[in-house]
Amino acid sequence: MAGTGVFAEILDEDSVYKYYSDGEWKKCSSGKAVAIINPTTRKTQYKVQACSQAEVNKVMESAKSAQKAWARTPLWKRAELLHKAAAILKEHKAPIAECLVKEIAKPAKDAVSEVVRSGDLVSYTAEEGVRILGEGKFLVSDSFPGNERTKYCLTSKIPLGVILAIPPFNYPVNLAVSKIAPALIAGNSLVLKPPTQGAVSCLHMVQCFHLAGFPKGLISCVTGKGSEIGDFLTMHPGVNCISFTGGDTGIAISKKAGMLPLQMELGGKDACIVLEDADLDLVAANIIKGGFSYSGQRCTAIKVVLVMESVADALVEKVKARVAKLRVGPPEDDCDITPVVTESSANFIEGLVMDAKEKGATFCQEYKREGNLIWPLLLDNVRPDMRIAWEEPFGPVLPVIRINSVEEGIHHCNASNFGLQGCVFTKDINKAVLISDAMETGTVQINSAPARGPDHFPFQGLKDSGIGSQGITNSINMMTKVKTTVINLPSPSYTMG
């Protein structure tokens, strides 16, 4: 169980989870704690330390010192420790999954899958890092006009320093390790600021890295209120790179970060364009998977369906039939639709629904809510003047907009300030490619719902959806910089010349 066995040391005598600094689990000096509310019961489930700015300073000092030694650690040794951490993570998937169920209401089966996927990501990163970082480049000067071969240029990848990782509530373990593993294999140290909802899952995950035997100070995890340490962390002079996944906060961070390298994924309004020739059963199945899995609380969830008028009635009926079969209830029962993460989230979603109702959208189901639990809702005949057409609900509510041309669908997609992913359903591959090229999104899925994985695929957003590209290889490259050494020869030298 959570907080017991190998995880017992991360919980203090007052049942408050400790933070991790300099290879030790510690209590904050203020004695204050932050409550984590169970979305299902709406009662306090866990408490974590409320770290102060002074404690953040100490963490940064340790991270900087540890990074210098870690950069001198052989690449094979870094990979070996990552593989060990991955094995421990997968071995202890049950207690970590338990935390995911209780603090973010993730269905039990999906919670276990997230931990296993995270272990696989760490192992893959270790292997990919050895391949990428084990190679450099050798350039010669006479390949550029006007030069003889008097210079040999050697390039390699070196670490940036201290990486600040800030994952979101919906995948707190997986999106944490997607930042931690590339940072570590590249020779960086890492400071993790977990989301409040998801913090305890992150702390359990960090303990797995601790048990693997990473050097003291190399990995830190600070918990606390964003209002007290959020800006202090992101603007800290000790940070050399920020990797953030979340919402509008990322835009504020990017404006304050100055010259720091940034890797950010900030949400989406992923459009699903459905053409007349699409396999409607396939489309309906993917709308259910893409729009309603984890109650729609995914950046890559389908957020708006743009369907050709001629097939709209048929598609809506097929989706309605599948929505009726979704199981609604607590995450412990592995229900399809579980409570959204906070009451404020539920209130925001309800606001979008009420706006659509006032403006004449067709409700394919009755709107129903109990606490944080919102029943799945398909809204037909949505128009562009409704908030739900543009805003990201992050909940189990999906708008359908009927279109009369492909151009109309592309225009709606591109008019959004988001540009994370999108999808197009058609049997005509030529049309699919042309539409994909026209959609202003980082990724377009053809005949499948949007998805972040597999985790080694590039993952990036355009416009307000992000900066930089994720995916294991891209993250390793982003968390390094190129170092060049040039050997100047006294006279031109030509091999076998």
From TrEMBL:
Belongs to the aldehyde dehydrogenase family. Its EC number is 1.2.1.9. This is NADP-dependent glyceraldehyde-3-phosphate dehydrogenase. The active site is at residue 265. One of its GO terms (cellular component) is cytoplasm. It comes from Manihot esculenta (Cassava). CDD domains: ALDH_F11_NP-GAPDH. The lineage of its organism: Eukaryota, Viridiplantae, Streptophyta, Embryophyta, Tracheophyta. PROSITE patterns: ALDEHYDE_DEHYDR_CYS, ALDEHYDE_DEHYDR_GLU.
